[in-house]
Design brief:
Elements lengths: L1 H41 L14 H8 L1 H35 L7 H12 L4 H6 L4 H18 L3 H13 L11 H19 L5 H20 L1
Length: 223
């Protein structure tokens, strides 16, 4: 039990560390390049910010430097994508660690509890009928996801399992078989989804940071 707690804390620290570092670095890059780019435009050769009223500075910049202003605006907007990519990478990093350590069994108790709450009230006939009713399956899936959120206090494990359940499709579940087989089939499918997901990649993230500094370079050349 203690070992499981320590391991859960370890994978949580991996997720938090990667998320915080990527968000901080990305936000810092965006803020730095936006500030530098704005200062370069304000004191560019075609405009003297010292002789322009404060409320008209941004409008004037957009009129005098439309392309550069749009590029700077995209730098600000990129912070949203940095946050999304940082979250995705951190989750994939945790998934990769679980798969590398062959510790997927850590997820099984949470899945079992969620499935007990989700499917415990259905008899075999009702489960079989769900094959013909996609709406019932969707409701079952939503209920399972809600139960997952209630069964795990670890945000990274919870997100991984929610993503796994969201990928689950009606054809993946052998409703006509025994309850135990249905449970095992669901667990195997979800773990399989997580294994496929465990491919952390930061290329797009670095492309965004590169874009930040290319914007500054463009402003230096064209202002």
């Amino acid at each position: 039990m203690i070992d499981k707690i320590k391991y859960t804390a370890k994978i949580s620290s991996i997720g938090v560390f990667n998320f915080v570092v990527m968000v901080f670095l990305g936000a810092f890059s965006a803020a730095m390049t936006f500030t530098i780019g704005l200062m370069l435009l304000m004191y560019g050769s075609h405009m003297n910010a010292g002789h322009t009223s404060g409320e008209f500075v941004l409008i004037a910049l957009a009129m005098v430097y439309p392309i550069q202003s749009i590029a700077l605006l995209l730098t600000v907007i990129s912070v949203y994508f940095i946050y999304a990519m940082s979250t995705s990478y951190a989750i994939k990093k945790v998934a990769s660690k679980l798969v590398a350590d062959k510790s997927e069994s850590l997820l099984y108790p949470v899945i079992d509890k969620a499935l007990d709450k989700t499917m415990g009230g259905y008899d075999e006939e009702a489960k079989s009928n769900m094959v013909q009713k996609g709406t019932d399956f969707a409701l079952l899936q939503m209920k399972a996801i809600d139960n997952i959120k209630n069964e795990s206090n670890n945000i990274w494990v919870r997100r991984l399992l929610v993503m796994g359940f969201e990928k689950l499709r009606l054809d993946d579940i052998p409703f006509g078989e025994e309850k135990g087989n249905v449970r095992e089939a669901i667990k195997m499918k979800i773990v399989g989804f997580i294994q496929d997901f465990a491919t952390p990649d930061r290329k797009k993230y670095w492309y965004i940071l590169l874009y930040h500094w290319l914007v500054v370079l463009m402003i230096v050349i064209t202002r």
